Each structure stands twice: as C-alpha cells, then as structure tokens.
Amino acid sequence: MHSIKKYLTLLICFFSFILNAQSQNPLYTTDYKQQKQWVDSVYNTMNLKEKIGQLFMVDVFSSDPKEKTDKIKQLISEYHIGGLIFSKGGPQRQAKLTNEYQALSRIPLMVAMDAEWGLAMRLDSTHAFPWNMTLGAIQDNKLIEKTGQQIAEHCKRLGVHINFAPVVDINTNPANPIIGNRSFGETKNNVTQKSLAFMRGMQKEGVLASAKHFPGHGDTDSDSHKTLPTINFDAARIDSIELYPYRRLIQKGLSSVMVAHLNVPSLERRSNFPSSISERIVSDLLKDSLGFEGLIFTDALNMKGASDFKEPGDIDLAAFLAGNDVLLISENVPLATQKMVSAYYAGQISEQRLSHSVKKILYAKYKVGLNKYTPIDTHYLYEELNTVHNKVLQEELFENAITVVKNDRAILPVKNLDLKKIAYVALGDDTGDAFVEEMNKYAQVDVITGSLLSDILIQLREYNYVVVGYHKSNASPWKEYKFKDKELVWLYEIARLNTTVLTLFSRPYAMLDLQTTTNFEGIVMAYQNSDIAQQKAAQILFGSIEANGKLPVGVGKEYPAGTGIHTKALQRLSYGVPERVGVNSYKLNKIDSIMDYALSNNMTPGAQLIVARKGKVIFNKSYGYHTYNKKREVKSSDIYDLASLTKILATLPLTMELKDKGVISLGTRIGEMLPSFKESNKEHITLRSMLSHYAKLRAWIPFYLQTLDSVTSKPSAKYYRNKPSEQFNIKVANQLFLRSDMKDSLMLQIRDSDLRDRLRYKYSDLPYYMIKNFIENHYGNSLDALTLQHFYKPLGASNTGYLPLNKFDENRIVPTEDDQFFRKQVIQGYVHDQGAAMFGGIGGHAGLFANANDVAKIMQMYLNGGSYGGKTFIKKETLEEFNTCYYCDDDVRRGIGFDKPQLGDVGPTCGCISMTSFGHSGFTGTFTWADPEQEIVYVFLSNRTFPDATNRKLISNDIRSEIQRLIYDAIIY
To answer: Has this prediction a pTM greater than 0.85?
Structure first.
C-alpha cells in the first residue's frame, strides 16, 4: 500500500510538472504531448549543419531584383536556415517568394516581420495602423488589443508567424532618435498595459509577439542602427522602469524577446560591450532572473551597434553563447555557420546548449502551425489585407487618441457658428488639405496664405476664430517634427492678436519648442498627419465626436503625461465607415452601379448623394458632370437647385418656429394670416389642410405664360426689360428684369383663383406662396435673410441659400435647364421654377440652393428632435405634430408640409421604410428623406432637367427610390 501511495504521489508530481511547464512556457501548446513528439521527431532527423541552420533568420526584400532574392534559395538549400525576416516590398511579391522558399525547405521556415504598426511598416499596398505614441493616448485598452489582433490577422494571411512587436521601450527621453513615436509613452504603467493588450491581441490570433528592445532603449539619445547607445542608469532604476513591462508580459505568456545592441554599464561590466552578446544580460538577467522561457532574438546583427564590435561570424557565435536562440540578419551566414560548427566540435557549444535553442525554435514552429504548413493563397490578398474592419478600427483609434490639451473658456468644440468667422493658417511642411476639407463640412473655413507675417495678420483682422494647423510628414515615425524659428515667431504673433486654436499633426514633443502657450485658447494634439487624423481632428473641433485622449508623454511642466480634456459632442453630423453604424459597405456601394446606369442612359448629367445613419455620414459621393459636355465634374461642394425641397428646408422650419412661438397653430386660417385673403374663397382654409394638400387648391398657376409675347413667345416688353430700373427691378434671369408691381399682381391671382370642385388630395405649390407672404410680413424681412439668420448660419449650412450668384462662384452652381420656353437661356444660378423666378428667385415653394451635405444637416436636425450643434431650433413636439398624417383615412399620405410614405403601392419611396419617415422630392431631380426608426438620412441631388425638363428617365426608372431600397438592404442591424 505504501509503494502504491508513493507511485501515485510521483505520478501526480510528474503531471503537475508537465501542466506547470505548459502554463509557464509560452511556446508550449495545449496538445503538448503531440507537440513534443513532433519536435523530437524532427530534431532527431537533423544533422549538425541543419541544427545550426535553424538558428539563423535572414532578411529578404521582396522589392529586390530576382538575382538577389534567389541568393536566399542557396541559404535554404545549403545552410538550412530556420527563418526569414521580410523587409521592404509588396504583399503579392512577398507571398510569391514565401511560397517558393517554403517549398525548398525541408523544415518549414519561420517567417517574421517588423510590423509594429502593421505590415505597412515594411510593405506597400497594406493597411497602416497608428503609431504606438498615438495608441498610447487611448484610454480604452480593448482598442489596443483589437489593433494587435488585426495586425496578427494580416500577418497570418501573408504567412508571417512572428511580429517583432510590441515595442515596450519607455520613452523617457524626448531626444530619442530611434524610438520616439514607436513607444507607447513615458510612464511604465501605460506602456505596460498597452503592450499587454497588444500582445494579447496578436497571440490570440496565433502570431507570436516579441517584446523589444531588451533591456530598454527608451532613454537613449543615439540610434543603435548607427552606433552603440549607452544606458547610464543604475541597476535599480533599470529594474524599476525599463524591466517593468518585460516582467509583466513574461508573466502573461510573452512568446519572445528581442535583445538590443546597447551599452549598459550597470548590467555588463565590460566597457562598451553590446547587451546582445552579454551573457549577464541575456542569460543571467532575462532567462534566469526574469524566468523567461520563450524565444530570444538578437536585434539585427548587421546594425552598427553590434557589427562594429566583432567580425562577421564572430558576433553570431558570441550572441549564441550569450544565450540568444535566433541570430537575426547575420552579415555572413556561411561564415557564421562555419564558426558555429567549429565551436561545436571544439566543445565551446555543447549538444545540450544547441538542442535547447533548436528545440525552442521547433516548439515555436509547431505553435504557429508549421507542422501542418500550407502555402499562401494569393487570391484576394490585397482585399483581405485592407478590409473595412481595418477602417472601422482606424477610425475608433484616432477618435479615442486625439487629445484636447488646452481648452480655455470651453472654446472647443466650436459653438454658435452664426457668430463665428473662421480662418485656417497652415504651418509645417506637409499638407493639411484633408483637415481643411473636413472643417468645411461644418462651416465656412477660409484658408489664409501669405509670404509675409504682416500679410497674414492683415487678412486675419476679418476673422474672430483662427485655427492653426501644424502639419509634419506622416511618411514615418522618425520624420522631423520640430518647429522652425520662423514658424514660432508667426505662431506667437497670430495667437497674440487672435482667438487661436493650435492643432498639431506631429509627435507631441513638438510642443516642447513652445516657450509659452498663454495666448492659445485651445490646443489639440492629433499625433499624426494622415488623412484620417486630420478628418477626426476636424470632427472633434466641431463637436461631432468627443475628445477622450490623454498625452502619453509630458510636454513641459504645464502639460504632464496624462493631460487631456474631455469634450462632449454637439449632435452634429460626423463622417465615417458604414459598419460603425450597422450598415454593410459592400452592399451600400452597389449604389455606384445604379448611378453608372443612370448616367450612361442620360437620366441626369450628374448627382450628389449622401447617406447618414445614427448621426454619421456613411456615404458621400459625387457623380458625373454639370452638363453632358463633361467639362466640369460634380464636386461635393457644388450647389444644386433644390426645387420643392425648399418647402421643407426653408418655409417649413420657419413655420414650425412660429408655431413654437405661439404665433400660429395648425388651426390658423389663411384669412387670419393674410388680411387681404379675407372674404375670399380661401379665407377659412387652415394651415393643417393646405399643408397636407387637402384644401381644394389648384396644383399651380403658370404665371409666366401671361407675360410672353403672343406672337414671338418671348418675354413681352410689357413686362420685362434687359436692364434694371425702378419700374423693372425683379431679376428673373440673366439680363431679364420683371415689372416691379408683378408680385402684388401674382398674389391677387392666387387669392382670386378658383378652388377645385371636389375635396381630395392634390399636391399644390400655392400654400407656400401664401405662407411666404405671411412670414415675410410678420418679420418684416425676406425669406432669404430669415432662413439664413434663423437656421442656416447656426447650423453651419454655409452652402445653402437663395440667390446663389450673390454668395457663390458661378462655376460651383449646377445649371438646371436650357430654357427655350420662358427665359430663352441656360438657367444657371437662377431658380428653375418659373413662379419663384417671378418673385425674384425667392419662393416659399422653390428657390433654395444647397449641396447635399447641407441638406443632410437640416434633415439630421429634424431627426435629432429639432436640435443640432448644441442649439434647439424647433421643439420636438412640434416636429412630431408636423410629421403626422392627419388625413390618412381620406387617402392623403402627407404630413404637414412633409411628404410621407405611400399608403398603397405607388408613392415617393421604395415602400420599404417606416411610416414615421418623412421627406420631399423636387422637380429638378432632387430628393431627401429621413427615417426616425432606422435613424437614416438620405439626400439625392441632380439636375435631371438639364438640358431639357421633359427628360423624365430618372423618374420613370425610379432611380431615387431604388437607391433608397439598396440603403435599407444594406442595414445589418
């Protein structure tokens, strides 16, 4: 019995040892028994040269010519190298070479890359994630884990098994020339937590992580690629700071460590002795003291920090004897192999020491699946290395990283746009185009340029809010970031004389050049100058998204690491990827096919199209040209005649505002609003019935016909002149002026017009002539001025308004028709609708011009319950009252002013939307619709009437509603 107990105790101890080894050794897999069998079986088939070959990982540039990449094949065939590290090139070329090399190798090759911010660190045509310094500003470490995970997915797809990342160096020296942006920051806790998350994400996907650069490269002022940097700290400081992240990552299963070429006197007594070949540092410290059992890589042995110390081959042997497992980028593999073999036979390298490293390498190969190697499938490689999920994460990362460093008097986000005149001044040596373009989606932001500071300052006198963008190259994290002396002088003077927000698209250390920040009301750190960084910085400036980032490094006593001011969003539209709001990009992009069909069949010369969901614009494209001569492409900033969208974007919001003020109600009658209509057949028609198009009113009155010459059919001299005068001052078109008394005459015609015989639904423009008249009389101002003051300016709808030629360059305005019936000219910049034209271009039913982005703002304001940009324009209950179908039982689908979905099979929409949705269409080919239930805004602007208004192809083919159907089909959740 005693012997049985003893046997059981030994058995339990044995299994406990095995389980503990599996839990501690980061290279072991859950099927450890099978893993060990494979490792032993492979090892036992290897001769000495093959074993030594496994220690070498050589570099390959897929961008190199064939004669150079073919030399690797000799190293595989003759020297049995164990791995490859790919550098510069492209994914397709790398995949092809990897497959060729793997086919030559009896034992599958372990493939590595430096992919700290993704494959783009080395390869073209691949996705670039933010640099670590940018990630260091993020407070949600789950996003860092996602980053590691997605980078690992890309690595696996390209046959890469180990990523030499994360960089765990704590960048406590701002002058560090090689780490800097590659570090997560200057505090050990932040760097450690970010590194742990990054490692988890990568290793979760089966790609080995590698912490670097051991024992710590963060506080150096020289580059180990060029020389041997010195770390002049005592062992206690290194243990408490530099080694802190390694200790935590090792505890959590770190797969590998890369040892740097550093001179660390407190850890290695020999003077100027590289850490990479120091047994004290590699074996005593890393392996013994820290208990690390994963793979140990040297940093590249061709770097000056190592190669200057010993001859090729000698450095390889020294590195192996120090305790490294993998010799990275040997300068001479044949010579190093020869010296290693000689050292083996001389007893300098024991079989136990060799098998220790070789078997670790084989364990790692099994762990990454090389025991069942399959070649890389090169189909759809580009697409799978640049997915929409990468774009989604990229947006989230920059949104969460960008940091508001200073915010005096809550100058950020920008509020009260109607009171702001905003200028932008660029500094630095890189482009800020994406920043300017994005800011102009929110308000008019003018770019100020000049060769002299005095010129700039004179121009800035016209503005009360100045945004300075400091743009430095985003090509690599090592690019120059410092301000030039001239730039500092300009910056201080601009800030002294103006309300100024400085936005830096550079590494945060640029702020160390600022001797004072007293005169800056706001400072925003965007970290990088990529398009997405610029776009998200603009969105934070204007409050469409919150600011949550915190500085990962200190930039002076005033702004220590951890500085960051949270700002709240203001319910303005943001811009991003469809998947962020539950919409499928692939399906949504099918809109392109419909638009291609419409354009190729001459349904319209061009169009603008916007789709927003949950307050985020997810589709924003322009198609075609202004006209069929294809001379001017449609741009997102171009202005369209909105036609009847004017009803719900100009007249209706002013009407609802008056309802909020108690001036009118839905029961108010025409006779009460317009005294001249008392005792007419329209006196008792209510606002509710006429705006529901259920009031017996005629559809329209063709006023212009009575002003044409009966013989020539041209505008009659009785009513028109080619030049303005006191008697002819209503501008109808270019060089065409209507008689001054005609407005009163036309209103009398509306008053005296007959009603229809039967009470039934009939769409009519006439209510909007009457309401316009009432609104203008009430305020004593024009609809043009009122809409601008009450809505468009505060909304930031700077591309919206009547009489566009008074506000915009004619080239931005899309023509609507070559009018040969009335005005005998191409209509560009003048309202297309004849009735509105005869009221000087300002109509309650037509006359408004805008781009799709501005229309979306107004529709989003409606979806927000009447609020936008931190301001309430209309009460929510009023909107609900106007968005109600009061006569549905009488087969009238309309709300108050708003069009509503069809009650039967035929109507304005796809028939696939909620009954709470609302919108309108316009004669020129415009359409907009909002759905509160799905939180969707859809805007379609075109000039289908050019050159001929009889072209109804866009309508007969249901292009606008078919696009709407696609939008709803694309909803995921």
So the answer is: yes
